[in-house]
Amino acid sequence: MKTDGLVCLNAKANEAKRHISLEKGGYMKNLGWLGKESTRILLPAIFITFMYLLILRQIGINLIFLLAGFFIALIYFAFCWETQMQKYDDLVKQPVIDYSNEKIGIVFIIIFLFYFFLRIIVGKELAWQAILSLNVGLLIYIWLSYFQIKYWEKMNHKTIYFDKKYGRWKKSYVIIERK
């Protein structure tokens, strides 16, 4: 009788293991290359870079603003390195992040005001050239963010996948251990 009870318990345990692995397996099929958070940074970076290069080829580059944007992005990235790495570490503990307190809107407002200030000083044509050159310089931030997430994934032997969006600001992620 004890043997029958053990077989029954083992059968239930195997059934439960099979159920869990089927759930994970079905879920894992949805997490492809496009689901990686690094890919969700890389694809827009490639597209935006390509578009800016085409536009700047037509209107010309203002080297001063290009370098200004580059150095602003580089300095900002250097100061935010630890904070972003901590966010990636926190994703492992709690995979839902609320970005509502991010200050990205402030950056757009500053660029918008900067454009109108330049438009008054140098005129419409040169203002567009200056703003676009500044934005191309700021693109280095997106590329550095891509390399930062790849660095974190390599150092922690994990991959970050985008899971779901909960409203406008909350996003969830799945962290998978790499073999």
TrEMBL record:
* Keyword rRNA-binding assigned: no
Which of UniProt's keywords are assigned here?
Membrane, Transmembrane, Transmembrane helix
One Pfam family this sequence matches: DUF1673
Spans traversing the lipid bilayer: 38-55, 61-83, 104-122, 128-149
Q: Could you tell me what this protein is called? A: DUF1673 family protein
